[in-house]
Structure formats: C-alpha cells, structure tokens
C-alpha cells in the first residue's frame, strides 16, 4: 500500500501482542485447512448436534475463543483442521477471513453449514456443493467490484465431489446465492406483512437462473479466498425448499455435509503432501 495513504498509520487494527482481538488467532494454533461455520441452531437435529463439527475432529482442542468466535483445532483422517465458528453473514465471515489471511498460514477455507433450496431439483436433506455464488450481499463489494466472480477453487470442488461420491449421499453441484437479509431481501415478509413487489420476484428470478440454494456466507468465502490467493469452497445441507414446498427440517443432511466437507479437506491435505 502506498505510504501516501493519509490514514495508514492511524487506522485501528485491533491487535494486542501480535494477536488479533476479534478472533484470537495465533499462527501456531491454527491449521492450514479451515472450516468456517456459523453457530446455527437450524442445523441441529436429525442426528446433528450443536458440537458435531468439532466432535468429528480427533484430539480437538480450543485454539482461540473471543466474544465473537470460537476456534477448535485437531485432525481429521490425519489432516490438520481448524473449525472457526461465529455469527452469521458476510460481514462476520470477513472478520474471520481477514484474520486468517493476515495472522495464520491458512491455505484453504470451506464453509460447512445449512441452506435453503431454491431449485426444484434439490430435496430437503440433500447437500449442495457450491461451484460459484451470486454476490447478492454487500460486504464483498467493499473489496472488489460486483463484476468480479465468486468462484470456488476447482481443487476444492473436485475434493468435495469425490468425498460426496464416497459418502453416497444425494448431492448437487452448482450456483449458490448469498444474501444479507433473512426477510424482505429473501422474499420473506417483514413485520406487519411488509413486502415490496420486487421482493416477491427474488426467489423466482434466481430459481429461473438455475441457482440451487441460498445462504449468507458462501459468496464471502469464495470471493475473498480468490481475491487474496487462498482456496475457497462451500458445502451445505438443505433444510427446506420454498419452491417445492418442502418445509424446514432442522439438521437434515448436516451429518453428511460435515463428513463430506472434512473428508474433502483430508483429501486436499494428502494431495498437497504428494505435490
């Protein structure tokens, strides 16, 4: 960055003794392979527990904990993995991603979590592997213009597909739409039934465009990982489908999504070791 930037020296960085205050990441405690997850009660149920992700690791230990994020580091099939869990949405994801890129040796970030389906091809309990994402949220546009594509890393997509084939769970690969709003911007009425005409078109618009599912974080991970030279991806369990009318089922498919996501990271670890 140019030294001529007026606010470079006065910009707050929220770091104490070399440790970022928002995440608490320490380089020697964070693995190169990272899962970014949301503390989401909607993926609990149907065999999936609140701590299912962390419990899937061998020798998992809390590596960092702040008021915003909790990080557990362990291994999965021999691969070093850190699971960072925090709040929902792209702005929260940005905080974790920037600290991962600035303060750790992270090479790969995937999202494992829940989503809703907007395609008639996708059933409740299926999993969706994102090949790309619609940047229908605001945070990523602060980093790069809207024309910049949110594309998953091809190695990550390949590893997720291979893992899904091995697990044998129904899955789909395609485009995810990420947004900020859980209400009007998602086509869901606000208090008192408030909904504008353009809000009513959101689901049909993206469904006709071939979008498979909707979430809040995939676009952030894909865009920022690509922009800052890391590998990014996402795999999500489908809890409901407003297009087909399948109602929400908490935790549906989440156990499979966890297995597929962690197995994919283990595959990437082995491939990287052989490279």
Structure description:
The protein is an alpha/beta fold and 275 residues long. The chain has one domain (15-274): Nucleoside phosphorylase domain (Rossmann fold). The protein has helices spanning 52-55, 90-103, 154-167, 202-208, 218-227, 254-274; strands spanning 15-16, 19-20, 33-38, 58-65, 70-76, 79-86, 108-117, 127-136, 150-151, 171-179, 213-215, 231-241. Helix 2 (90-103) packs parallel to helix 5 and helix 3 packs across helix 6. The longest helix is centred in the last third of the chain and has 21 residues, at 254-274. The mean pLDDT is 96.
Helices and strands: which structural class?
alpha/beta
Give the tally of structural domains: 1
Helices and strands, in order, run as: EEEHEEEHEEEHEHEHEH
Quantity of strands, as a count: 12
Q: Record the strand order, biggest sheet.
A: 7-11-10-8-12
The rough form would be described as globular
Give a short overview.
The protein is α/β, with parallel strands linked by helices. The protein is built from 6 helices and 12 strands.
């Amino acid at each position: 960055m140019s030294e001529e930037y007026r606010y470079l020296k006065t910009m707050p960085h929220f770091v104490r003794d070399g440790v970022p205050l928002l995440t608490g990441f320490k380089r020697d405690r964070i693995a190169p392979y990272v899962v970014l997850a949301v503390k989401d009660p909607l993926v609990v149920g149907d065999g999936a527990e609140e701590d299912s992700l962390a419990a899937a690791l061998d020798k998992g230990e809390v590596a960092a904990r702040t008021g915003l994020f909790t990080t557990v580091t362990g291994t999965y099939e021999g691969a070093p993995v850190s699971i960072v869990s925090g709040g929902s949405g792209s702005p929260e994801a940005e905080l974790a991603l920037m600290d991962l890129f600035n303060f750790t040796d992270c090479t790969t970030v995937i999202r494992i979590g829940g989503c809703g389906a907007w395609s008639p091809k996708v059933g409740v309990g299926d999993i969706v592997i994102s090949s790309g994402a619609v940047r229908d949220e605001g945070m990523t546009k602060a980093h790069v213009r809207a024309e910049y594509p949110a594309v998953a890393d091809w190695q990550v997509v390949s590893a997720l597909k291979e893992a899904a084939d091995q697990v044998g769970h129904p899955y789909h690969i395609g485009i995810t739409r990420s947004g900020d709003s859980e209400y009007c911007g998602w086509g869901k009425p606000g208090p008192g039934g408030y909904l504008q005409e353009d809000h009513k078109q959101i689901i049909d618009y993206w469904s006709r465009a071939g979008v498979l599912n909707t979430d809040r974080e995939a676009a952030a991970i894909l865009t920022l990982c690509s922009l800052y030279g890391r590998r990014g991806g996402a795999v999500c369990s489908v809890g409901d489908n407003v297009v087909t009318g399948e109602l929400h089922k908490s935790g549906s498919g989440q156990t499979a999504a966890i297995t597929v996501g962690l197995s994919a990271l283990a595959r990437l670890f082995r491939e990287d070791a052989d490279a």
